[in-house]
Structure formats: structure tokens, C-alpha cells
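Input.
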Amino acid sequence: MRTCCFTGHRIMKITPELKQRLREAIVDVVNQGVTEFYNGGAIGWDMLCAEMVMDLKAEYPDVTLHMLLPCPSEEQVKGWNNTQIARYEKILKAANSVTVVSEHYTKDCMKRRNERLVELADCCICYCNNQKSGTGQTVRMAKAKEITVLNLAQLPINL
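Output.
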């Protein structure tokens, strides 16, 4: 196992306990050999995961963060507030690479981004409590690929 992707909901309650569980999940996969993390750059779960990887880089210098954006940044951040945009820009600056999946926003660019995330991953750390969402679709793709899926929305988590 060398690579991990993240998928999760944009709107969710982020608690100190969830942050701790996320940190533990990332450290666990790093200890299993994962060094490359792929992130879709959305608000909510994606931002939380990207920031956690950025924080862990000090302890684990081999860890890399790769951003896979569905469309150009100026299109992705439409409707975001200034705080969300500032966090996003900080993440992009810290990333080891930034790849844009579609030249423009299209109705399927998010799905294409999610397919690419799963294609590149050996495991997936997610927060999914709605199977009818894009996150649910991504989790189904990961399970179809038969990679390990750690869903932090489910209790208990067995890492």
C-alpha cells in the first residue's frame, strides 16, 4: 500500500474527536507504507484531510499531498466565502502537486475527479453517511476496485 485518497461530505459536523480519529487513521496507513495522499479540494472533509496531511508532514517527511481538482480553481471556489478560499489557497500552495481534471466546470467534472482519485489509490479514508451522494458513489467505486475503505462516519473504526 503506497497511496490513499480521501472522499467525504462538504457539509458535516467536524468535532475534536473526528479530527483525532482522522489523524489516527492517517498515521495508521502511513505506518503501513502509504506516503502519497490524493485529495479533491472540496470544502468540508477534503479540506480537513488536506490540512491534517499538511500538519503530519513535519512528523512524516516522506508524506506527499497531491490535489486533484475537478476544474480550475476560479470555477471551483464560486460561492465559497473568503475563509474557505483562503484555506483552499493555503492547501494548494502546500501541495506537492496540483492537477486539474477538466479545463472547465462541467456537470460530470466532479465524478471524473472522483474516478481519478480512486484509480490512483490503494486505500480510501472517507466520511460517508449518505450513500446517495457523490461521496457514496466514490466509496462504491473504491469498494468495486477492492481497496481498503476506512469510513470514519461509522463506529467503531477498526484500523
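The two ends are 14 Å apart (CA to CA).
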